Structures are given as C-alpha cells and as structure tokens.
Amino acid sequence: MFKKLFAGAAVAAAVLFSASLASAASFDFTSGTNRTDGQGAGWHGNISYSVDGISVNATPVGYSSGGQWIRQYDDHGLAVYSGDYCCNVDSNHEVDGWIYGEAVKLTFSEEVYLTSVSFTHVDRDDQFAYRVNGGSWTENISIAGNNPYGFSLPGLKGTVFDIAALDWNDDWKLSGVTVSAVPLPPAVLMFGAALAGLGWFRRRKAAA
Ligand SMILES: [Ca+2]
Ligand SMILES: [Ca+2]
Ligand SMILES: [Ca+2]
Q1: Residues, Cβ < 5 Å to ion ligand 3
Q2: Could you report the per-residue pLDDT of 59-94, keeping only the tens digit for each?
Q3: Could you tell me which residues come within 8 angstroms of residue 160 by beta carbon, excluding any fewer than 6 positions away?
Q4: CATH number for position 155
Q5: Which pTM does this prediction carry?
C-alpha cells in the first residue's frame, strides 16, 4: 500500500516536473542533422528541422513573388535567393539587403521563446532586424562582436519570427537559433497532476 502510494505520488511529481521544466532546443542550420524536409542540397521553397519535439519550417522572404528560394549551405547556414526572372537577379547567395531586404521566416510548431540567433559571413557593417508574429520590424542590430545574439530572457515569445537583412550592405547566413518551450500555465499543470492521480487511483482499485 505504501509502495503504491509512493509510486502514485512519484508519477504526479514527474508530470509536474517535466511539464514545468522549460526545455531548450538548439537548431543547427549548418548541417543536415535534424532536417526533416528530405529535399537534400539545393534551393527550395522551404526547409524544415525538428529538435526535441519542436519543429520549425524555414521559408524565404525576398523581392519577387515568383522566385524566392532558401538553401542550407553545410558549415555555413541558411541563405535566401530572390529574383523575378526578368530584371532583378540576386547576385548575393546570402540573406542580403540589396534592392529588397531578404529574410528567413521561421515558423515553429508551437509557441516558443526565441533565446538566440547566430550568423556566419559576418562583416563589420552587417546588421539584422527581426519581427515577431508579423509585427513591426526592430531597429537594425549590429552583428559583429554580438554573435550569437542573445535576447533578454526568457526570450522573444512567439510562433513566427522573421530574421532580416534590411540595409543595402547587410549580408550573412543564418547558422542557428535556440528556443525554449513556453511553460504550461498552472491550470494545465494542475489538470495533468489530477489525471496522473486519477490513473493511480484506477490502478489501485483494479489491483484491490
Ligand atoms: Ca540573397
Ligand atoms: Ca549595415
Ligand atoms: Ca557579410
């Protein structure tokens, strides 16, 4: 009896603990590890990754409605190509601000806290700007000496993050981001604990 009671309490405690622990996920865009779109190398309409149960879909934002592509360069990160097949051709295979500010749009499978972003191909004049859930753009932020760039904790809360090169001389590749899960509200935790308790009670009844 005491053993069972202890087991039930342990289950409830485990549910509480795992649900309230904000798990961090680190997305590395410089390798195919954790990639889930299965498209391999080359330019695509989207590229996706999954880490610790959180997945992200990365899509390109550029100056043409007809020719925006995203690519994962091994050892470098995500880059955007945009062109309209006519007059404007993107000669910079990075995320760049020439003619039109390009961006990598990151859409997560759940609401997260974005805690950091990291870049490669960073020069002294490279900056980035971002927006959350389609809101307004931030001011340009200098990257050099600030890479990876960490947001004030707990991070930026949202589901969709655009990381952009808006200035004409900004060009870089997005090499990774870290996020942490948004902890469940106390009501949900209580409900989870109640369910765990109920499960223990049922098992106990069945055993009797
Ligand atoms: Ca580009
Ligand atoms: Ca700049
Ligand atoms: Ca650069």
Answers
A1: 121, 123, 126, 171
A2: 999 876 556 899 999 999 999 998 776 777 788 889
A3: 105, 106, 107, 108, 132, 133, 134
A4: 2.60.120
A5: 0.80
